[in-house]
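LOG
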Amino acid sequence: MPNEPAEPRPKQGLLVLVVEDEFLTAIDLQSMLEDVGYAVLGPVGTVDDALRILDETRPDVVSLDLNLRGQSSIPVAEKLRELEVPFIVTSAYRTFDFPGGEILTGVTAIGKPVHPRMLIEALSQACGS
């Protein structure tokens, strides 16, 4: 039996990890991504779950909320930089002026509510495609 990948990958499109703690927003993001043929990992709503996924799988790109149940997602951003996985921020926060926020320098941020076209364009640009 041939080795199968741990996570199914789309024949076309990207494998996107969605890190979002608000259930309805997470489902909405997942739907937007799947509508254009992207595969979605998650959504996951905690820093620990996001880091666990990143230890197991390498997504093509990540959509990252900055505040996960009151916890900063900066540790996830640091791990993404370490792994050289591109990411965007989807957040209601308008500034990255907080401890550790410098890790987000140069990262595209999309405000909430997220518009599908903006999401897809930002993810594509983050990946260089």
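LOG (cont.) second protein
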Amino acid sequence: MKKIQKILVHEQVSQEIQNYIEEKDLSEGEKLPSVEEMTQMFGVGRSSLREALRYLEAMDIIQVQNGKGIFVKDVNTFRFTGKVKIERERNFLLSILEVRRALEGQAVSLAAKRISSKQINEIEECLDEYRKLKEANKDTSQIDLAFHRHIIKAANNPVLETVLDSISGLYEKFFNEPLGDKQLFDETYPYHMTMFQGIAAHDTKAAMDEFDKMMDCIEEKIKSA
């Protein structure tokens, strides 16, 4: 549940910053309040605010200049409702996907070598819950995210886990109504099963082949959405 709360704070803060830009009618190049001022304005911690700033900077909405401040980069990047334009979000997801292929792909490879019997059982339970939710046509986004976190944990590499956790706000964009559709990646469900089968059998090649198919499917869905 802590991860869900983190997503909500990140989204709320980035939305409030966009609302501030609109309300103050700021233009490109105009300066935003400092980090210290915004933590007071929005009543959030520095870590939550910085995560929101990283997200908005990646979306080309703001620009953080070290030693100078935070500036509006492009007021046309988001709609006045605060929602990022579909084309911008599509390109953003594709950029994250490139990073995800590299980092999570390494996690899958390591998990196939290091996964324990206990972790295999935990993932089997996770996939069973995933199946039940999918068959009931319910939201599977959080159980999907939980599945991938199990794989990352099974890699048994604390540095890799920390790196992925450090970009969790970006990573979780795939599970938080991407392009306005919570079920956008439902077609990847079979690859969860086959990838896990490869991992559980300690068959690195089979696991990676299925992981690549999953990433290809996600990429195609993003491009065609």
